């Protein structure tokens, strides 16, 4: 596995692969890898000749009240995960390498950001779109892999690729969960023992909401019932519980629309998100 820290070397690696006709599967991350990331790497390895993993804590997607320096980092552990899951190149640039000066051009996302997490994280997805635009140009992947745990991010990336005609295929992958249903997340380490016991309730509330929705229950009634359920069974504060069309992330009105049921709950030191998507024939991704 090659560890690459410069843009020029990363571009040279990709160019050589392309010259040889090899496909590149790309998994962009901010590090502190867990089993969810590992599943993306495994799928990329199965579907491409080469797998590229990027680890870059992107300062542009942190808001003024979010601590960039506090984001968990453990490169030695991440390196082991990458080695164990067949990564061919690990792109690990410093902030100065990616942003040597204040950017003169950044991206602005106009749709799919005024709901869910984007509603309270102004500029977050602008930062995501900006860094992905750079990474797509640097790495030139054939396919890019994202977990559906952050379904809003997947929706934004789909719009970015489509609108700007990037020659890359977006591959959304199912959320990887603990045995009790809690979605894998680097932020789970910040849960207290009591909060960790409560956390599986989040997924159970999504499952219950999906069942009620498929039974034809009123959306407003479902949301109210699930918020009450979460407040009763956890010590966290419900940030939102929403049922929207997907990937548009707008009010879901038509019965045949693909829908997402999504939530965010703020515990003392960790804000957890999760979701379920339901497709028109009634099946859902659990």
Brief summary of the model shown:
The chain is α/β, with parallel strands linked by helices. 36% of the residues lie in helices and 19% in strands.
List the helices and strands and how they pair.
Layout: E1 2-4, H1 7-19, E2 24-29, H2 35-47, E3 50-55, H3 75-84, E4 89-91, H4 95-98, H5 124-139, E5 143-147, H6 151-163, E6 169-173, H7 193-198, H8 201-214, H9 219-233, E7 237-245, E8 259-266, E9 271-278, E10 284-285
Parallel strand pairs: 1-4, 2-3, 2-5, 3-4, 5-6
Antiparallel strand pairs: 7-8, 8-9, 9-10
Helix pairs in contact: 5-6, 8-9
Describe the fold and architecture:
- The chain has 286 residues and is α/β, with parallel strands linked by helices.
- The chain has 2 domains: 2-173, HUPs (Rossmann fold, 3-Layer(aba) Sandwich); 186-285, Pantoate--beta-alanine Ligase, Chain: A,domain 2, CATH 3.30.1300.10.
- The chain contains 9 helices and 10 strands.
- It has helices at 7-19, 35-47, 75-84, 95-98, 124-139, 151-163, 193-198, 201-214, 219-233, and strands at 2-4, 24-29, 50-55, 89-91, 143-147, 169-173, 237-245, 259-266, 271-278, 284-285.
- The strands form 2 sheets. A 6-stranded parallel sheet has the order 1-4-3-2-5-6, with helices on both faces. Strands 7-8-9-10 form a 4-stranded antiparallel sheet, with helices on one face.
- Strand 5 (143-147), helix 6 and strand 6 (169-173) form a beta-alpha-beta unit.
- The two termini are 34 Å apart.
- The relative contact order is 0.13.
- Its EC number is 6.3.2.1.
- It is found in: Cytoplasm.
């Amino acid at each position: 596995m090659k560890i690459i820290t410069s843009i020029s070397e990363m571009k040279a690696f990709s160019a050589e692969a392309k010259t040889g006709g090899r496909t590149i599967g790309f998994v962009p991350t901010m590090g502190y890898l867990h089993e969810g990331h590992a599943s993306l790497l495994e799928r990329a390895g199965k579907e491409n000749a080469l797998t590229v993993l990027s680890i870059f804590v992107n300062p542009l997607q942190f808001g003024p009240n979010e601590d960039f320096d506090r984001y968990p980092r453990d490169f030695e552990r991440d390196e082991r995960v990458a080695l164990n899951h067949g990564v061919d190149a690990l792109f690990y640039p410093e902030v100065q390498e990616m942003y040597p000066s204040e950017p003169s051009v950044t991206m602005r996302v106009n749709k799919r950001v005024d709901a869910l997490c984007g509603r309270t994280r102004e500029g977050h997805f602008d930062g995501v779109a900006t860094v992905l635009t750079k990474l797509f140009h640097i790495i030139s992947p054939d396919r890019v892999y994202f977990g559906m745990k952050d379904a809003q991010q997947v929706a934004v990336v789909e719009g970015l690729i489509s609108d700007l005609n990037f020659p890359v295929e977006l591959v959304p992958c199912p959320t990887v969960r603990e045995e009790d249903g809690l979605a894998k997340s680097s932020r789970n380490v910040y849960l207290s023992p009591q909060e960790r016991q409560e956390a599986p309730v989040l997924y159970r509330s999504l499952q219950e909401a999906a069942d009620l929705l498929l039974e034809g229950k009123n959306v407003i009634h479902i949301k109210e019932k699930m918020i009450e359920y979460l407040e009763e069974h956890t010590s966290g504060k419900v940030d939102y519980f929403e049922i929207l069309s997907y990937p548009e992330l707008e009010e879901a009105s038509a019965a045949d629309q693909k829908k997402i049921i999504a939530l965010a709950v703020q515990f003392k030191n960790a804000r957890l998100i999760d979701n379920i998507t339901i497709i028109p024939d009634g099946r859902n991704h659990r």
